Amino acid sequence: MGAGRHERARVRGAQQRSTADLEALFEAHWPRAFRAAYLVTHDAAAAEDIAQEAFLSAIRNLDRFDRRRPFGPWLHRIVVNRAIDWTRARRLRAEVELGESQPAAENPRPPGEDVLAALARLPPEHRAVIVMRYLLELTPGEIAEALGLPRGTVNSRLRRGLDRLGEEL
Amino acid sequence: MKRELEEVRIAGEEEARERVRAVVLSAFGEREPAPRSSRWPRVAAVAVALAAIGAAALSSPGRAVIDELREVVGVKRAQPALFSLPAPGRLLVSSDAGVWVVEQDGSKRLLGDYREASWSPFGRFVVAAKENELTALEPDGDVRWTLSRPGVRSPRWTGTETDTRIAYVDRTGLRVVAGDKTGDRLLVAGFRGPFAWSPGPGFVLAHTGSRGRMVIRDAESGRVLARSGEGAVPRELVWSDDGTRLLARAPFSVRLLDGRGRRVTEEGPSDGTRAIGNAFRPGTREVVEIRRAGTGSNVFRWGDGRSLFRGTGVFDDLAWSPDGRWLLVSWPTADQWVFVRATGARRIRAVASVSEQFRSRSFPRIEGWCCAR
């Protein structure tokens, strides 16, 4: 049975109130949902709240979910949009982001620190498309649909985001 | 790139997963049960739900969500709408719909599609920001002038009856412009952190520097007047009305400095609690603070530690009435505003459905409570 069929079976099971299937869906999608939220917000507590709220939203809407569609992108769209909203709100409050606030680190830096610091210097909208493309492995078309953007905008954000990351790294 | 994104280390990832899993399972167990043929699956589901609720109750996010699901959060006898403010003055509020002025009689006016705003001295004008525009307008919505700048945020107005300045941040850094739109110039290049005007004479502001230092700077000459020692990088700066005290709030450290940047005292939550907001009571050096601890939040007074208001979930903003008698606490978890009378016998007045009243998906922010006319 392919991964897609496995997932459809789990969604069907969860719709029929199977806790085991819901738990399997949680285990399958939690790591990426939490990581995606963290990479956009750079705040572990916010990422936890956002991922949690996305799963709760998924549960609330489970009965209306079309099993022919993949569950992951549906969940990740909720996560990334909320993460963008949260990050914009924090910027409006002039809160200092982690990447800006940390003093210069001593070498060697832990794995991933460089890319995290470079991501922090991108606008949240650019961060989001990078995370959706390279962590969640969505196509530009899927990202455009999830964020309600023209595909050209997604492509230009990806290109500019990658260029800036390349410069930073 | 994928590998690098997957390698980023996130502190507490495993604990977060366990907390959220408990909450998700408990919420799943609380759904309306589907028709079923056997009683045993139902018994099992209830057992799982009870176990999950028990587990969730041990974690703060879990407890908060369960409370939310049961709709027990909030002041019970809250007014369904904001019929009036309990003290003279006007509120400035920002929501998804834009920036609003709320009069003392509770009437509201949407000034426009701005993202944030603040009052001018004496509340005569409002300065508001859009993505690429700074706007000065009257409280009735009439625009006095606009200034196009990239990525405008955090506009703050200061000055006397005859001479004022507005500081704001854009993509170039911290900038200052006169209240009549003249003399716009860059004060601190590349600056993005919090800043606050000093209420004292002249045009002096405090902003964050490297390694959590506070820099006190003359905005006219650009000269640095004082620097504090290093500390936690603050997310918010607040001056007392007399300009002799500066609060620098970081989540786990709140420093109180004097007007020369010397440390007076420091509150360092060491028990896992977080400082969410601080405010000086008008005309005094009395500090109140929102502290988030576990499943709830508490507003308390420094010094005697007296709690003014506490509740389940998250409190967000604080604003004193101009006369210093009432404290407005925003409570997103309950979708309420709570007015707490801080003098004499304690009284509470709560207002429900705040988001809906300001046509907002996210919880509206209190930008300021200013100036009785």
Walk me through this protein's architecture.
The complex is a heterodimer of chains A (169) and B (373). Chain A is built from nine helices and no strands. Chain A is globular. Helix content of chain A is 73%, strand content 0%. Chain A has 169 residues and is mainly α. Chain A has one domain: Up-down Bundle (Butyryl-CoA Dehydrogenase, subunit A, domain 3). Chain B has 373 residues and is α+β, with helices and mostly antiparallel strands. Chain B folds into two domains: 2-69, no CATH class; 90-370, YVTN repeat-like/Quinoprotein amine dehydrogenase (Methylamine Dehydrogenase, Chain H, 7 Propeller). Helix content of chain B is 15%, strand content 40%. In chain B, strands 3-2-1-28 form a four-stranded antiparallel beta sheet, with no helix packed on it. A four-stranded antiparallel beta sheet of chain B has the order 4-5-6-7, with no helix packed on it. In chain B, strands 8-9-10-11 form a four-stranded antiparallel beta sheet, with no helix packed on it. Chain B is globular and about 60 Å long. Chains A and B meet through α2, α3, α4, α6 and α7 of A and α1, α2 and α3 of B.
List keywords for this structure.
heterodimer; A: 169 residues; mainly alpha; Butyryl-CoA Dehydrogenase, subunit A, domain 3; globular; B: 373 residues; alpha+beta; Methylamine Dehydrogenase, Chain H; 2 domains; 4-stranded antiparallel β-sheet; 5 helices; 15% helix
The sequence of SSEs of chain A as H and E is HHHHHHHHH
Number of domains of chain B: 2
Helicity level of chain A: over 70%
Strand content of chain A: under 5%
Identify the CATH architecture of the largest domain in chain B: 7 Propeller
CATH level-1 class of the largest domain in chain B: Mainly Beta
Number of strands of chain B: 28
Q: State the oligomer.
A: heterodimer
Question: Which pair of protein chains has the largest interface, and what are the residue counts?
Answer: A-B, 46 and 53 residues
Question: Given the C-alpha coordinates, what overall shape of chain A results?
Answer: globular
Uncertain segments of chain B of ≥5 residues (pLDDT<50)?
33-72
CATH third-tier fold name of the largest domain in chain B: Methylamine Dehydrogenase, Chain H
Beta strand count of chain A = 0
